[in-house]
Structures are given as C-alpha cells and as structure tokens.
Structures
1.
Amino acid sequence: MDTGVWRRARARAADDALDLTPVLEALLHAFADGRVTVTPPAGRSLGPTRDGTPRRGCRTGPLSHHVWSRADHRRAAAGVKSMPVLCELLLGGYVDGHLTTTLTATGHVPRTHREDDAA
C-alpha cells in the first residue's frame, strides 16, 4: 500500500475521533456488501507508489476474518488485483472524502449535561 495514503487515512480517522482499524473494517464491510464499488486504474500494480517510493506494509489492528474474507471474495470477482490494492483504493476514497463512515453507538449512553437541558 502507498504509505502516503495510509498516513493520510490515519490522520483523517484521528480528525474524525476514530482509529484507522474500525474505519478500514467498515469500508471493507461496505465493499463486501456491495454498498461501495471501486474501479482500479488501468494497469494498477504493487510496484512503486505514484511518487516513485517503494510500497511498504501498513498495519492496523486486527480486522475481522469474516469481513476480510468476504471483501477478498468480492475483490477477486471485481477484478481488483489484491487486497492491498483494494485497501488503498478504499482508504484513498476515505481520504478524498468520496467515502465516509458513520459512528453508531449501541447500548446505554450515559446522560450528560446538554445546552437544551439548561433552559
């Protein structure tokens, strides 16, 4: 993966008060479900990045094996060369603002002081 894309995605996730791992997992899940499509640029390979630097491994926390496997299956059917290329395309879309994530809280959320309570 292009480390520049990975760094920008990590920074964007931090700006969104999120860790990159759940962002990537949400994007892979959406791709696996068919809610997101990608079109890899023609001739895309895992050669040097756009600026000519070598590609490096980029790490996140552990991702769900189920989500990864489903995304990998759809990736192969869609003709995307590899999972690193898919991850780079998805994170690139997130960095560029073409893809967004939504944080959904489940369970009990403690009551906090809100402006509308002050009236």
2.
Amino acid sequence: MDCTTIDDDRKRYAPGLKDSSDKELTLYFYDDSDQAALIAAAAAHETVMIKHQWTNGKIASYSLKLLGYQIVSGTADGFMQLKITGKQESDVTWSTATTVSG
C-alpha cells in the first residue's frame, strides 16, 4: 500500500492487501458427476478448495473463487477440454504426498 507523503523524496510503502492471482484450470472433459458438480459451481460463481498433486508428490492447496467455465473441442488428440476460470482467494499451502505401505 502506498503511504508516500508530500514531504517524501521517494515512494514509501506499508504492507497491504495482496492482489488475487487469475487462474485458469484446463482439464480433460469426461462429462461425469464430479465434473458436473464443478461446472455447476463455476456457473454459480462459488468458492471452492482446489488441490493439485504433481507426479513428484508435491501438493498445492488454495481457495478459488470460480468465475465461469468453457468446454472446448477440437484438440489434436481428439479430447474435449474443460476450462475453469477464477481468482485465487488464499495463499497456496504446500505439502508433500505420503505413501501408505500395505
């Protein structure tokens, strides 16, 4: 947050609110019940918790205000895609997946 006064010779800043990041999630469109619920939430502009897990076991979790969706066809591999747009509402919480031995 800018807190520069007239007497200052350079800009001064104080901690302020963070800007939300724009997000676009692109998924394969399977037209199943889980994706139907996500599409309904996007159409209603709901806030949801998102969790991504990468192949190296890293997990990112954050709150996302959904702003809409689009179903896109015609990819080179023949699959339809679902694109969800939103604004990130929380900081990302990072963790690592643990495996359960049997």
